[in-house]
Design a protein that fits this description.
Strand order of the largest sheet of chain B: 1-3-2
Largest interface: A-B, 31 and 28 residues
Strand order of the largest sheet of chain A: 1-3-2
Strand content of chain A: under 5%
Strand content of chain B: under 5%
Distance between the termini of chain A: 47 Å
Number of strands of chain B: 3
Largest sheet of chain B: 3 strands, antiparallel
Largest sheet of chain A: 3 strands, antiparallel
Radius of gyration of chain A: 29 Å
Helix content of chain A: 55-70%
Number of helices of chain B: 53
Oligomer: heterodimer
């Protein structure tokens, strides 16, 4: 650190104070915002931090400039935060920032107009980022990382300040998204529920009026929640919305959305094109898709095992595992087609032995009872139409559409999938286009 | 609530003080505090009256005040000294005690005088007034004193029932005094209260034995004015202790012990206090003497002998307890002196009377009470140096151990009380304290009498013993008083002819018991009592006023109910610390006695009442204890935060704990009775700690030295029923690790049913937790319990164990980690049905874990469940390792039902039941095994029954084989209501049902 004269330090601090006061008095949100972004490493703030470390009596300056004495409550801890952040004391920096943020929120409530949304966003972002850093520091000391939790409760307060009527409501979604990020990180996603309810039940404010970026983020997180709950229809809807509205140049964001959207689409019988997986570097899904296409149970299991860690972490493992039934369906369909090619007369009767043999060929060791069980489940879940005769160990397939397509509907045990609007031949392809279309839309938007 | 109540009371008390007849108002406050038992209430009133009388007796104290006033400076100095300095303080005490007392008096005098003199209520105030005063008095010295008194009482109750509590209270008082100068007054007042309480308690039990001791104490107290006196007093104390011990041995073990401890504590306190309050005032001369005589006279000729001294009267009135109280007071003053340094104590004591006491008690206690335990050495050292006898006391006092904790607690409490509203609570509780005081009083009375007899306490211990012996023979107070008169004459004679120190008192034959008539004549107790109120207004009353209890006595009638409650609480508190039976029994007795009339009658009544009351009290004790503990907590916490001596206290505390072992040994004898106390004290200390930490703010919870609070069990019994702790654990009922190992083995080999095992295991777990044992034994216990819970299908208990095991494994303690990971996984899969939990559980599994047989199985089960593969599920069910089967059992019904629904939909036209039975795990043995056919048949029947119960349509085909008509069944299947369902949803709560399943 280069030597810094007291005069220079004094000048920098006064300058900062003046800018802060000016931006508040002129209600200039964007310039205030820059003054608050502690972790942005902007040269201005860095030099200010140095000045603060040299000039220890900054509080006196704050008091002197008593034009906005109430702002001292914000600035004093903010200065401490900057100082600590500069020297790497992240926990202290967080603590100071939280104080400052609380003081800011207090002031914010008093401001009628929504001019300070941007500074508030910055604070919401900074407090989360600082909390994460502080937690890392705490963890390195072997202490309980609890700062992120604290940040979460602060943001809940902010949400409370925004969620009512009035112009500030625009910011509610942004804060909610920051909350999502915290809760997903903490693994306490059930805490999201209250925020979601508040957003989705509010009639005074149309969801579409929120900023796009917040809408996309919100849809992404709520979509993920639906994946958890294996509520594939809703998850598909939300994630698709996020994909459609996501900035196409933000490939990383698109990838994050696709990471969840692809398993969801697979679960409802829609397969992606391989280029999509390549483009967004989602190759871990390649084998899964291939297995679905070929009815290759071995490949699916292998893919799941290979990427188990990743799938578990992104919590799509269970979703992918359930694709097994679709793979069985595909396998039986293949057997059915080959039988049909040999002799159409008895093609709809599939002997269990044949299936067992096919599985053996895939190096999967299952006995007759188990295969019988699988067949029963397939019929039960409406992936195969027909019935199973226990005595003769034969599955009798329906002559009409023995393998109903999911067509965007999840596997359903009670399913009465009677709709035959999609020709079986195109069944696998059309949804694929569908998917493709969505992706293109996202890219173009 | 407590706080507010206490405040409320305090206000009332103040009012009373001003009017001197606010007793009525006070009573309300009392009533508010605890729910009083009617009988106790009555007794209380009596006590109060006694007090009032004592106050009257106090009148003479004008000299007192003066003396004290002169000495204040010295006191302050002493106060400045830390607890550690106890020794120095003790030494100082002699010299300084007088001064201290003076100081206290001086400050007091003005304030206290006002209180005591002006207000008859002082005594009443004891609890009430004091608290009130304290609140107000903060500014007002007198008020402060009162508060401290109140606090003291509570403290006492909290802490050791016996001496410890006393000391603590004293200490607090001392603190108060030191700060304001008030303390001394407060002490006296408090002590009075104590005396009352003790009086009532002791009369019946210890009376005889203790009396001599108390005498010694008294004498010491008289000496108090002089440094030498102090030492002497201590010696007496030692004797006292020994005596008390003896008494304990003979009589009710617990009770006796408690009494002994209490007495011992009280005695020390008295001795110290005496010198200060009583003797100190006397130091000037007559006053001190008067008190002494009065104390000695208390039993027989209290009135006559003491006549001159207000104190004497007081004592007499109070059954001589007053004298004891005085003695006690001195002790407090000693203790207080150390404590005094803290200005806070006042406030705390005032606010939280209990708390205040604790603080004082911490330093001082540690010295006094702790000494007996093991801690004593540290604190005591100073005292010991000055007074060798204290050590003996320590030794003799087994109970002491508990005291230290209490003391520590107290110390902590003080600061908090000051700050917190809790202090007010504490004040409210003081009434409780008063009870504990009472216990001490019982002992004290004897001391007092003895002391008075011996006057300065210069008398040799052998003489004191002699006096005690003599008094022990007395059947009632009047007789005692007569004996005391006789002894007084003897002693006077002996001292006149110079044989006092040369005569072998140990072998001296006891004089014949005086006639009761004589006694009656001599004993002007009743008269004294009545007169007491009058006296109160005189200067001597000051001391009495300090004893505010006297005024309370008047009020008592109304307050009686309240008092009773308080008494009970105290007693309970005492009991917990020392011997539950003891305190309780004593307290009631005290109560009864007091009501009956002053000191004389109490004895008999007490005896009668003791047993009965004890029983009654026992029930109430736990609650009151809790309250007390809480208050102590707060007060202690406050003290911690505020007091500069915190560090020292902590050291003391930790030292005390070091002494645990000794305690434990001692406790063995006492067995369970002792345990309760320690619980309290421990809890209180913990509370204090936590409190203080809260207050401190900057301090983190991690900084609490939990090690110092950990119990070391001494119980040797292998079998122990589980009882949810409602107070701090008692080492005497906690089993050490070795015993727990045996207990675990016993449970593992036990053929009894799950309920028994669960109970035993829970108690083992509790003992482990209490002792903070976290090692492989702990893991084994939890594993054993988890397994047996699984076997019995007790998921709730299993979950508790599992969560504990999780953290134990996380600490790196070895166990069957894999096995329980598998259980955990199965539990999540089959029962919680939470995908997020499942995913995180799976994500946490290491590669190594995935190779484990049990985990592999669990993962396979998971796969079978998620895919609905019932064939696989039941195959896994049959080959499940460990107790995986048990967990799967709980899911079998669901799985079967889903499977049958699936079959009824997928199969046409029928499915043979034999197949279903085989696939769905009804056939328990594989067909290839010999005799399987029979088993299959069993399984078949079971399956058929099950299918019918679930609404399946069964038909018999041509070959006579039972078939499931799938088409018909598909619409008729239903899940029947579980037969063992209970309204509250937890079948485990249906004991009969549970027994049939598990036995």
């Amino acid at each position: 650190m280069a030597y810094l004269s007291m005069g220079e330090a004094h000048r920098r601090i006064s300058d900062y104070l003046n800018r802060f006061y000016d931006s508040v008095s002129s209600q200039d949100g964007s310039s205030l915002r820059q003054l608050l972004s502690v972790s942005s490493d902007s040269p201005h703030l860095l030099s200010l931090a140095d000045a603060l470390n040299v000039f220890q009596d900054a509080n006196r300056l704050i008091k002197q400039a008593d034009r906005y004495s109430q702002l001292g409550e914000i600035i004093a801890p903010l200065f401490r935060c900057l100082q600590n952040y500069r020297i790497g004391h992240l926990v202290d920096a967080y603590n100071a920032f939280e104080k400052s943020a609380n003081a800011f929120l207090l002031e914010f409530r008093n401001w009628e107009s929504a001019w300070a949304m941007e500074p508030l966003y910055v604070i919401a972002y900074e407090i989360r980022v600082l909390a994460e850093k502080a937690d890392r520091e705490l963890a390195s000391y072997g202490k309980n990382p609890e700062k992120l939790k604290g940040a979460g409760s602060f943001l809940m307060k902010v949400f409370g300040a925004l969620a009512g009527k009035g112009p500030k409501r625009v910011g509610a979604l942004h804060v909610t998204c920051q909350l999502f990020k915290i809760y997903f990180k903490l693994g306490t996603v059930n805490l999201c529920r209250s925020a979601i309810r508040s957003i989705e039940t509010a009639r005074i404010f149309d969801f579409e009026e929120f900023p796009v970026r917040d809408k996309v983020t919100y849809m992404y997180y709520t979509g993920r929640l639906e994946v958890f709950n294996e509520n594939f229809i809703a998850a598909d809807k939300k994630l698709t919305y996020a994909l459609m509205h996501c900035n196409p140049r933000r490939e990383e964001n698109i990838r994050m959305i696709l990471k969840y959207l692809i398993p969801v689409k697979l679960s409802i019988g829609i397969l992606p094109k391989s280029w999509l997986l390549d483009k967004y570097n989602l190759i871990e899904y390649n084998d899964v898709v291939q297995a679905l296409k070929r009815g290759d149970l071995r490949l699916l299991r292998h893919a799941l095992q290979e990427h188990e860690d990743r799938f578990l972490r992104s919590s799509v493992y269970l979703v992918l595992e359930k694709l097994e039934l679709q793979v069985y369906q595909r396998l039986i369909k293949k057997i059915y087609i080959s039988q049909k090619q040999r002799g159409p007369s008895k093609a709809h009767q599939i002997k269990l032995d044949v299936i067992v043999k096919a599985l053996k060929w895939l190096e999967i060791d299952m006995d007759v009872d188990e295969v019988e069980c699988i067949m029963a489940i397939l019929i039960y879940k409406n992936l195969v139409k027909g019935y199973f005769a226990h005595k003769s160990k034969v599955a009798a397939l329906s002559k009409q559409d023995p393998f109903p397509k999911l067509n965007g509907k999840p596997i359903n045990s009670k399913g009465t999938h009677k709709n035959k609007n999609v020709p079986s031949v195109l069944g696998l392809i059309i949804p694929f286009f569908f998917f493709n279309f969505f992706v293109c839309g996202g890219g173009g938007g | 609530m407590l706080n507010s109540l206490s405040l409320f009371i305090g206000q009332k008390c103040q009012i009373v003080d001003s009017t001197g007849q606010a007793s009525a108002s006070l009573t309300p406050g009392h009533s508010l505090l605890p729910s009083a038992t009617g009988s106790t209430a009555v007794s209380w009133t009596m006590h109060r009256t006694d007090y009032s009388s004592s106050e009257n007796g106090l009148i003479p104290t004008s000299t007192y005040h003066h003396n004290q006033q002169t000495e204040p400076l010295s006191r302050e100095v002493q106060d400045g000294l830390n607890a550690p300095s106890n020794a120095s303080t003790s030494s100082n005490l002699e010299a300084a005690n007088g001064p201290q007392e003076y100081a206290g008096y001086s400050s007091y005098t003005s304030s206290t005088d006002a209180y005591g003199y002006g207000n008859t209520g002082y005594q009443n105030g004891y609890y009430y007034n004091y608290p009130q005063q304290t609140t107000h008095s903060y500014s007002q010295q007198g008020g402060v004193y009162e508060h401290s008194g109140a606090s003291y009482q509570p403290l006492i109750s909290f802490q050791n029932t016996g001496p410890a509590s006393y000391t603590s209270t004293y200490y607090n008082a001392a603190d108060y005094q030191t700060t304001g100068g008030y303390p001394s007054n407060e002490y006296n007042n408090q002590t009075n209260l104590w005396n009352q309480g003790s009086y009532a308690h002791y009369p019946s039990h210890q009376y005889s034995a203790y009396t001599s001791d108390s005498n010694g104490a008294q004498s010491s107290s008289t000496v108090a004015a002089t440094p030498l006196h102090y030492q002497q007093q201590y010696k007496p104390w030692a004797d006292y202790y020994s005596q008390t011990d003896v008494s304990c041995a003979p009589g009710t073990e617990n009770i006796s012990v408690a009494s002994a401890t209490t007495s011992g504590c009280a005695v020390p306190g008295h001795t110290g206090g005496y010198p200060f309050s009583n003797s100190q005032p006397p130091p000037p001369g007559t006053t001190s003497w008067r008190p002494e005589p009065s104390s000695s006279e208390l039993p027989s000729s209290q009135a006559g002998a003491v006549t001159g001294d207000a104190h004497n009267v007081y004592w007499k009135n109070e059954n001589g307890t007053s004298g004891i109280q005085n003695n006690v007071n001195p002790m407090p003053s000693y203790f207080q002196m150390p404590l005094n340094p803290n200005p806070l104590p006042y406030e705390s004591s005032q606010d939280q009377q209990k708390i205040a006491c604790p603080q004082g008690s911490n330093l001082q206690y540690s010295t006094i009470s702790q000494v007996p335990q093991s801690q004593v050495p540290q604190n005591y050292q100073p005292p010991l140096q000055t007074f060798p006898s204290p050590d003996t006391r320590r030794v003799s006092k087994l109970q002491v151990p508990t005291n230290p904790r209490i003391a520590s607690n107290l110390g902590l409490n003080l600061p908090k009380t000051d700050k917190d509203s809790s202090t007010t609570n504490a004040a409210a509780k003081p009434a409780y304290i008063g009870v504990s005081m009472l216990t001490s009083n019982d002992k004290v009375p004897s001391h007092e009498s003895a002391d008075s007899m011996f006057k300065p306490g210069m008398f040799p211990t052998s003489l004191r013993d002699y006096v005690e012996r003599a008094l022990a023979r007395c059947n009632d107070d009047s007789q005692k008083a007569a004996c005391q008169n006789i002894m007084k004459e003897m002693i006077t004679k002996a001292s006149a002819d110079g044989t006092l120190y040369t005569r072998d008192w140990d072998t001296e034959p006891l004089f014949p018991l005086p006639d009761m008539h004589m006694v009656n004549k001599d004993g002007k107790n009743s008269g004294v009592v009545s007169s007491l109120p009058k006296y109160k207004r005189s200067p001597s009353r000051r001391t009495k006023s300090r004893w505010e209890p006297i005024s309370e006595e008047k009020l008592v009638e109304k307050l009686a109910s309240v008092n009773h409650v308080s008494v009970k609480e105290f007693s309970s508190g005492i009991c917990e610390r020392k011997d539950d039976g003891w305190n309780n029994s004593k307290l009631p007795s005290l109560q009864q006695q007091t009501p009956s009339k002053n000191s004389q009658r109490p004895v008999k009544k007490q005896r009668l009442g003791d047993t009965v009351d004890a029983a009654e009290n026992d029930g109430a004790s736990s609650d009151s204890d809790k309250e007390q503990g809480l208050t102590a907590y707060y007060s202690s916490a406050v003290a911690l935060a505020n007091s500069p001596e915190e560090r020292k206290r902590r050291e003391n505390r930790s030292k005390r704990f070091e002494a645990h072992g000794h305690r434990a040994n001692v406790k063995h004898f006492r067995q369970k009775a002792v345990g309760a106390r320690s619980f309290y004290s421990r809890r209180a200390s913990v509370l204090e700690l936590s409190r203080s930490y809260e207050d401190g703010g900057s301090r983190a919870v991690e900084d609490i030295d939990w090690d110092s609070l950990t119990v070391k069990g001494t119980c040797q019994e292998i079998e122990k029923r589980y009882l949810r702790l409602t107070s701090a654990p008692d080492p005497a009922t906690v089993r050490p690790e070795e015993v727990l190992e045996k207990a675990l083995l016993m449970v593992q080999n036990s053929q009894k049913n799950y309920l028994y095992k669960c109970d035993q295991l829970k108690s083992i777990r509790q003992d482990l937790t209490v002792q903070r044992i976290r090692n492989e034994l702990t893991v084994k216990v939890y594993e054993t319990h988890a397994r047996s819970a699984l076997e019995a299908g007790d998921l709730a208990e299993y979950n508790q164990c599992q969560s504990q095991l999780k953290s134990l494994y996380a600490e790196g303690i070895k166990g069957c980690h894999m096995e329980f990971s598998a259980y955990n996984l199965l539990c999540v899969i089959l029962h919680s049905n939470n995908n997020r939990d499942l995913l995180s559980s799976m994500a946490r599994l290491s590669d190594e874990a995935r190779k484990d047989e049990a985990l592999k199985h669990a993962l396979a089960v998971r796969a079978a469940v998620t895919s609905g593969n019932h064939v696989l599920f039941f195959r896994l069910y049959k080959m499940a390792p460990n107790l995986n089967t048990c967990l799967m059992d709980l899911y079998v019904e669901k799985m079967r039902f889903e499977a049958v629904r699936c079959m009824s939909r997928a199969y046409r036209p029928t499915v043979p039941v034999t197949y279903i039975a085989q696939v769905l795990g009804f056939a328990t043995v594989l067909p290839t095994i010999e005799g399987s056919e029979e088993k299959d048949m069993d399984g078949l029947e079971e399956c058929e029954e099950w299918l019918r119960a679930h609404g399946a349509c069964l038909i018999t085909d041509n070959s006579g084989e039972m078939q499931l008509d799938t088409k018909a069944s598909s619409s008729t299947l239903y899940m029947p209501e579980p037969e063992d369902a209970v309204a509250h949803g937890d079948t485990n709560l249906a004991v009969n049902d549970f027994l049939t399943r598990t036995s």
